[in-house]
Design brief:
Elements lengths: L14 E5 L2 H4 L6 H8 L6 H7 L7 H5 L4 H11 L1 H6 L4 H11 L5 E4 L5 H6 L14 E3 L14 E6 L4 E6 L14 H28 L8 H7 L1 E5 L8 H13 L6 E6 L3 H9 L3 E5 L6 H16 L2
Parallel strand pairs: 1-2, 1-6, 2-5, 6-7, 7-8
Antiparallel strand pairs: 3-4, 4-5
Helix pairs in contact: 9-11, 10-11
Length: about 300
Amino acid sequence: MKGNLPPIPYGKTPVVFLIGSGVLQAFGGDSWDSLLDKIKCVKLSDDEVQQIKKLPYPMRPVVLTGDRVDVQLKEYVAENAKEVDNGKANEKTLDLIRGFCSLNPDAILTTNYTYEIESSLMTDFSVATGKSHKYRKKAVDLKVDKKTGKLHQYFEIPTETATQRIWHIHGELAKPNTMIIGHYYYCELTSMIQQYIHQFIRRYQYSQKQKTDFVPQSWVDYFMIGDVYTIGFGLGVSELDIWWLINCKKRHGSQNSGVYFWDANIADEKKLLAEAYGVNVHSDLVQDGEFPQFYEGLRQRIQSRLAE
């Protein structure tokens, strides 16, 4: 269904949350590795399994599926339709997510394939594999923008205080053909973003010159002109689509916005790379079992900054 994204007033910096799997794991939720275990089909020795862990994350599923990532995903979703459609996180995880959503960002971007964010906002939320959904929207006519279609789809969830818009930027589990898993698909997504970015730059520069409201057409628009706060997203060096966008934002995005990377135990080399790209890095030392407190503290810090 075609949606209508609200225009961003001239001079306003949107608030954008980028939510990763860290918030799901704070209370013992599934990790990236657990999904790989579900789709792997290649028999490997214990030594080979250890060797695979040395590979960057996007390359691991290539080995585990014998380069049949798309086939294995479709088979998994077909065999586990009920789990995919109605799976819910535990209530503590949903409460954690609700706390961040209560800050009412202009856009929520997530690399998670599952629907915990939507479920935290709507208790009876569910999706049907391969079917349309009344809350799934398209920012543009996809018949016109077939090449960049994945960039324009989102869920629009009405709540008592605001309408929340959630963008699954790496795809969603009920639509396995949209999921970004594997090196090939990360590069394909990055290429799609590169194709789209030129029209974004033209539209944004025109609105700035005319001092008029800007109408976003994809999650990329929000990333480029908004204050982006990472929440449970580790910004791994293999996330080449996000790193490319961070660099592009520095060169062509709003100069009044930034990326705020908050994470636990950030490696020094990642901190140096992020800072070179102009990212505001905030790192806390966090022990196992302390992540719920870390995320609550992060929510309070973001809330305080938004109130400034």
